[in-house]
Write a structure and sequence with these properties.
Blueprint lengths: L4 E8 L3 H13 L5 E4 L16 E2 L10 H19 L4 E2 L3 E5 L5 H13 L5 E4 H7 L7 E5 L3 E3 L1 H14 L3 E3 L4 E6 L4 E5 L3 E9 L5 H7 L6 E13 L10 E4 L11 E4 L5 E4 L3 E2 L13 H8 L2 H9 L1 H12 L1 H8 L11 E14 L9 E4 L3 E6 L4 H16 L3
Helix pairs in contact: 1-5, 1-11, 2-11, 9-10
């Protein structure tokens, strides 16, 4: 093992949240000696590089929550970052569509929440929706003009470039194996080296609970991985989708439902579903890690949520194995879509924190230690909010 290297701040995780924290620290204190550690060969390998690339507006989130506030501000910040650095962005807007009378009340609640969160939200009639999305089946809709698309891996790469230009350091290909935290210092042992820092910030995403435990903290929650599988429209069917097209979310299921996404590369994605992943980084159905799976199956919180959402969970699982059923679900929004019009696309895994009593942790959640801060729950819209999450941590939680 090489000589021990010392830093002011060590960040574990080179995804968008970790990079956002590093950037915010350098903004506030440029003289800091800063290190970002990641077990992968580069940045944004997992959640940050396996998502829908949507810039969210914050319309769905509880007013006053961190998600609502940081998504709204992060929407502005993300576009500004792309403009400043000549990166791709497309403020194409999102439509949230009610396909029948039973969804109108829920659509109105989303509208009111958006207004309460300070967003621009426009109600659309059926004819106004048809003018924007001729192939979408809907009786009413909301238009959220500020939602859009970026290329998050490109943003992550630019963050790395900027952080390095400010003398920040990266240690890639280094898995953390041990953490020792005292009142004065934190020691981090990796597969290659040992580092010490005055402070540690855990932005390890899918492994944030294990890193917190390694540092000696019981967060009262466990990361449960949910895989989201996408299909892609064949290129000759891209005309079916002009905006980001979302259904009214099912109030009985804690995910947004299958939606259509206009991508930065010109493609159109449809998805994702939401099924339990048998591996924390399990992007394929065949990916199984016995330790990861055993942790989930022996966690009482999982069985409570499995019971609460059994029906929807089984429906999601069936759609995962049947393109026909997946297509039928997507046809609720675009009836002209056919099974032959789509082909398998990418998949992502969402790191969702789950409490012991079976509740999904709804908001971003941080746990502070003696010399550490642990980002214990940062699912969507964390990519959109990542720069602002970093600033929030520096402003509210991290007095150097």
């Amino acid at each position: 093992m090489d000589n021990i290297m010392t830093y002011d701040v060590i960040i574990i995780g080179a995804g968008l949240v970790g990079l956002g924290v590093a950037s915010a620290l350098q903004e506030s204190q440029p003289e800091l000696k800063l290190l970002v550690i990641d077990k992968e060969s580069g940045p944004a390998i997992h959640q940050s590089g396996h998502n829908s690339n949507v810039v969210h507006s914050g319309i769905y989130y509880t007013p006053g929550s961190l998600k609502a506030r940081l998504a709204k501000q992060g929407n502005i910040t993300t576009y500004a970052f792309c403009q400043q650095h000549n990166l791709y962005y497309d403020r194409c807007g999102k439509v949230i569509v009610a396909t029948n009378e039973s969804e109108l009340q829920a659509l109105e609640k989303i509208y009111q929440r958006g207004i309460e969160n300070g967003l621009e939200v426009i109600k659309m009639t059926q004819s106004e929706l048809k003018a924007r999305e001729p192939y979408v089946n809907g009786i009413a809709a909301l238009l959220v003009p500020d939602a859009g698309i970026v290329n998050y891996p490109e943003i992550a790469a630019k963050h790395v470039e900027i952080i390095q230009s400010r003398n920040g350091e990266f240690a890639f290909n280094q898995a953390v194996t041990a953490i020792n935290e005292t009142d004065d210092v934190v020691s981090v042992t990796t597969s290659n080296n040992q580092f010490t820092g005055k402070w540690l910030i855990n932005c390890a995403g899918l492994f944030s609970d294990r890193i917190a435990k390694m540092a000696g903290y019981n967060t009262g929650m466990k990361i449960v991985p949910f895989r989201g599988e996408y299909f892609m429209l064949n290129n000759n069917k891209n005309y079916l989708v002009n905006h980001l097209i979302y259904p009214v979310p099912n109030p009985d299921f804690p995910f947004l439902g299958v939606h259509f996404t206009r991508m930065y590369n010109g493609h159109r994605d449809v998805g994702p579903n939401a099924v339990l992943a048998f591996k924390r980084e399990g992007y394929k159905k065949s990916d199984i890690n016995l330790k990861d799976l055993a942790e989930v199956l022996t966690y009482k919180g999982f069985w409570k949520i499995a019971g609460n959402y059994f029906g929807e969970g089984m429906a999601e699982l069936r759609r995962s194995y049947s393109r026909k059923l997946f297509t039928q679900n997507a046809q609720k929004l675009i009836p002209d879509l056919r099974e032959a019009d789509i082909h398998p696309g990418p998949a992502g895994v969402r790191a969702q924190a789950l409490t012991q009593d079976g509740k999904l942790v709804d908001d971003f959640h941080f746990v502070k230690g003696k010399r550490s801060l642990h980002v214990c729950n940062a699912p969507s819209p964390a990519a959109t909010a990542s720069i602002e999450i970093g600033r929030e941590i520096v402003r509210e939680h991290f007095l150097l």
